[in-house]
Write a structure and sequence with these properties.
Helix 4 packs across helix 5 and helix 5 runs parallel beside helix 8. With 132 residues, this protein is mostly helical. It has one domain.
Length: 132
């Protein structure tokens, strides 16, 4: 599917830009995970790796911006892999808070269809998906 100009401009922005909110830079961060999330928020969405997406999604950061991009990525390869194992991005995506899916039914439907279309691949990898 060809993207329109607005979609391309949107994906070239970082979460900081899209949310209009910059987290303060610290000299030291309480954990490496917080430091990584802080850094990833500065990267344009279209340049985030599957692992960076998995990490941010796992922390419920920027979901309304990241889930559409993630669904597009998963539509190319449902078993897209971050740094853990094939399908880790999909598995993490299905485990986000239920409230997000309730408020974003179109995205829920898109992901559900992808899961249905790829059910055999998913089953073969023994992924632990949460029902949407």
């Amino acid at each position: 599917m060809k993207k329109n100009k607005n979609e391309l401009q949107f994906e070239q922005k970082s979460l900081e830009d899209l949310e209009g909110s910059k987290w303060p830079d610290l000299k030291e961060y309480p954990t490496n995970l917080i430091k990584r999330c802080h850094d990833y928020r500065k990267i344009p969405i279209n340049r985030l790796t599957p692992e960076q997406l998995r990490t941010l999604i796992g922390q419920n950061i920027g979901l309304k911006y990241l889930i559409p991009v993630t669904i597009e990525l998963l539509s190319k390869d449902i078993l897209t892999e971050g740094d853990l194992y094939p399908g880790d991005l999909l598995e993490r995506t299905t485990k986000i808070e239920d409230r997000f899916w309730t408020e974003n039914l179109v995205l829920k439907e898109q992901l559900s269809k992808l899961i249905d279309l790829n059910s055999e691949k998913i089953r073969n990898k023994n992924l632990q998906l949460k029902s949407l």
